[in-house]
Amino acid sequence: MNIPVQVPIELKMLLRSNFHKDGGKGGDLAEPAEVRHLQEAVTNYMTACHVLWPFDYGPLVILRVLVENRWGEAAGSDMRERVGLVSRFFNEVVSDNSGRAVRGEPPLEYEKVRAKWTRQVELSFPQLHFLGNGTAGAAAATGGGKAKAGRDGRAQQGAGKGGLNTPKAMHNNRLVCYAYNQRDGCKRPRGAADACKDANGKLYAHYCNNYDRVKATHCLAMHPRCANH
């Protein structure tokens, strides 16, 4: 009997420039550099899924949420931030859908995928206020690209149905580093034994920012969220 296996898929794997590379052995896969690369990768994913599973609506839901949010326009003019935001969102949704497929469950529905987008924007840019339906449309009002400094911790949400009311992850009065908790890890220089520092010398704690909504507390163990939750 064939047992279904969950295969990890990341957005960068779907770039045309990476088709000949072996990412499975730690190959140097190129990262998306422009919005058109994001669009190309998502289109390639949709095409492959349609050939293999014609009735899988998961890719269409991802596309709808990305189009509604203008392919990460909330990140402002910083293309690296924009690409990172869309990539994290895509990778998370595809990973969840892959796990659901292995368990014989349908792909995530639109409302849940949209909530994942809202959460990613909240994590990346805590100073943005979310509007009405949970999309991050306030970038222009807060300075667009200037929002890139707020990649760490989680902000309390203002009014609007999209707010998740998640408090900032703090450790010893320092914001917890968002990048430390992601798969690619933190690339900033070390500022202390348990923290990195930004260009202005501000410290960000290297502790787990996973939030337990039942206990209403962050994990704050000295391990990254992505590998332990």
Give me some keywords for this one.
single chain; 229 residues; alpha+beta; 2 domains; three-stranded antiparallel sheet; two-stranded antiparallel sheet; 4 helices; 30% helix; globular
Task: Describe the protein's architecture and organization.
- With 229 residues, the protein is an alpha+beta fold.
- It has 2 domains: 1-128, no CATH class; 165-229, no CATH class.
- 30% of the residues lie in helices and 7% in strands.
- The strands form 3 sheets. A 3-stranded antiparallel beta sheet has the order 3-4-5, with no helix packed on it.
- A hairpin with a 5-residue loop joins strand 4 and strand 5.
- Mean pLDDT is 80; it is low at 129-164.
Low-confidence runs of at least 5 consecutive residues = 129-164
Helix content: 25-40%
Largest sheet: 3 strands, antiparallel
Number of helices: 4
How many beta-strand runs?
A: 7
Short description:
By secondary structure, the chain is of the alpha+beta class.
Task: Give the helix/strand layout.
Elements: H1 35-52, H2 58-68, H3 79-102, H4 110-124, E1 170-171, E2 174-175, E3 190-192, E4 195-197, E5 203-205, E6 211-212, E7 217-218
Antiparallel strand pairs: 1-2, 3-4, 4-5, 6-7
Helix pairs in contact: 1-2, 2-3, 2-4, 3-4
